[in-house]
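> forwarded from #structure-qc
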């Protein structure tokens, strides 16, 4: 990470924006409006902004439908029959995978169940699932119901990873120790990539290595990691991963999910799976015959044909990611998040009741900072909202702020700082 001498002047933010090689990407997105100006949008960790190119992408597919009807599956520039392939190379670059290892399909929790149907194969001796305590509810519910589906009691099958007393985040050595402790009984290590509440980025390579060392499978939920932090799923040797596209990947509300399956499983037709027509060998798909023959790689887990309009919106955003590049985005993300951290620390030093629980080490976080705002936190969040700063509230007292490098600026971060500084000076009992 480049060392930047941050300061609290507006001119510093302006100079950083002037030097930013990615600054022009901001103009490719629509911002919500507040009193005639762009809102301060720090909620890309919940829903990314709309790329301006999405409308044309949707109009193109609507025109295909209007012009060709059902023949749109086989005609035109992007035939629907093969649409998932048009997203593979870009998706592979986002998550650090081979093209055959990824596919865009379904939604995140559906994909998680599909992956667990294949990779969580418990028996009487090896049946445990290791999961972080306080995982996003969808993950908790999926793991809980998968354990029950196989006849195990969740309280016996699920091992929860918890921070040490007095700490907010997990230590990698504690994760590895837990994996080793429960190793002979562990069937699956199922962990987040970036923890939704704390913003902690896990050492996925170390976790995968430890899981495989004890004979367990390993999968990751990358809902808050894909498009946020550098990923190298193939090199890290994960068995599988799942993610959504509507957060940092800007595919729109309810956007399609994605799946990674490592190439060592690519041709393993013996893996149990819940199969569907679109995962069947595409050369024989329209023979409508009995006997499922999976396509090679992750596409063999597809169930149904693509949701074309949703895929088109996703493809428009992936084009922008390709143009920006994850290396450059990560470089800006570290600088931008570090700047927000510096300004929040300045406010804390001046008396505002703010405490960052996201790791201070840039390698252990993405662009989200989770801030404990104390008993007056909800009122502070509402103050920000009323002044055009869109962020995220999580009970009981956390404000999540995500300066997203693709469209946020240093000027945005400084404007948020000024809002908070003005509220501190107003003396409305938010300090302490």
């Amino acid at each position: 990470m480049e060392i930047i001498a941050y300061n609290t002047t507006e001119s510093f933010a302006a100079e950083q924006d002037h030097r930013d090689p990615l600054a022009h990407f901001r103009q490719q997105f629509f911002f919500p409006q507040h009193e005639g100006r762009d809102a301060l949008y720090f909620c890309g960790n919940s829903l990314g902004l709309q790329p301006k190119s999405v409308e044309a992408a949707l109009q193109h597919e609507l025109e295909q439908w209007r012009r060709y009807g059902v023949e749109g599956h086989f005609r035109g520039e992007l035939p629907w029959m093969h649409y998932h392939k048009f997203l593979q190379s870009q998706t592979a670059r986002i998550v650090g995978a081979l093209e055959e290892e990824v596919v865009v399909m379904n939604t995140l929790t559906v994909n998680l169940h599909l992956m667990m149907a294949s990779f969580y194969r418990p028996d009487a001796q090896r049946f445990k699932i290791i999961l972080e305590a306080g995982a996003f509810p969808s993950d908790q519910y999926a793991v809980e119901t998968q354990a029950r589906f196989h006849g195990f009691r969740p309280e016996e099958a699920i091992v929860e990873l918890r921070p040490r007393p007095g700490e907010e985040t997990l230590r990698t050595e504690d994760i590895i120790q837990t994996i080793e402790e429960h190793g002979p009984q562990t069937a699956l290590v199922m962990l987040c990539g970036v923890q939704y509440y704390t913003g902690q980025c896990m050492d996925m390579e170390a976790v995968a290595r430890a899981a495989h060392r004890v004979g367990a499978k390993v999968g990751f939920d990358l809902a808050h990691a894909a498009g946020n932090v550098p990923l190298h799923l193939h090199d890290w040797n994960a068995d599988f991963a799942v993610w959504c596209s509507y957060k940092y990947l800007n595919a729109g509300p309810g956007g399609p999910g994605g799946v990674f399956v490592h190439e060592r499983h690519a041709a393993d037709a013996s893996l149990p799976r819940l199969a569907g027509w679109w995962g069947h060998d595409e050369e024989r798909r329209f023979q409508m015959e009995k006997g499922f023959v999976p396509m090679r790689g992750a596409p063999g887990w597809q169930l149904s044909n693509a949701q074309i309009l949703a895929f088109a919106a996703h493809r428009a955003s992936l084009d922008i990611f390709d143009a920006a590049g994850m290396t450059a985005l990560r470089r800006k993300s570290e600088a931008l998040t570090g700047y927000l951290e510096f300004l929040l620390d300045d406010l804390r030093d001046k008396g505002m009741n703010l405490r960052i629980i996201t790791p201070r080490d840039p390698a252990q976080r993405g662009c989200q900072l989770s801030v404990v705002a104390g008993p007056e936190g909800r009122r502070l969040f509402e103050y920000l909202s009323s002044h055009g700063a869109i962020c995220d509230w999580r009970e009981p007292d956390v404000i999540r702020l995500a300066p997203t490098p693709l469209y946020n600026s240093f000027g945005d971060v400084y404007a948020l700082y000024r809002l908070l500084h003005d509220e501190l000076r107003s003396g409305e009992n938010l300090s302490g």
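QC bot note: The chain has two domains: 10-30+325-426, 57-322. The first strand starts at residue 29 and ends at 30.
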